[in-house]
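sanity check this record:
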Amino acid sequence: MNRIIWMGIGVAIGVIAFRKISTAQSALGPEGLNRAVGRLADGLFDFADAVREGMGEREAELRSALGIDTAIGGGVDAALVSGIAGRRDAVRR
């Protein structure tokens, strides 16, 4: 009975080690590096989009609080936002 338990523990450790080594090998190659850089770039683009959106919302709040004509400024221009999104998609490809 003792041998079966130790054999099960050994098999479990072997499976865990094999999975960790396989993951590390795939992360070390050029494809793994490419994936890591892609994830980093996506994260930066998402962060920049969130900052731009927050800036537009805050600008709209300030304009309404100060009584500035919002028809002229109106926060972030839709053409500017769509242009930024288009560049973002082009960079990802």
Observations:
- The chain has a mean pLDDT of 79.
- The chain has one domain: 2-92.
- Residues 2-92 form one domain.
- The longest helix spans residues 30-66.
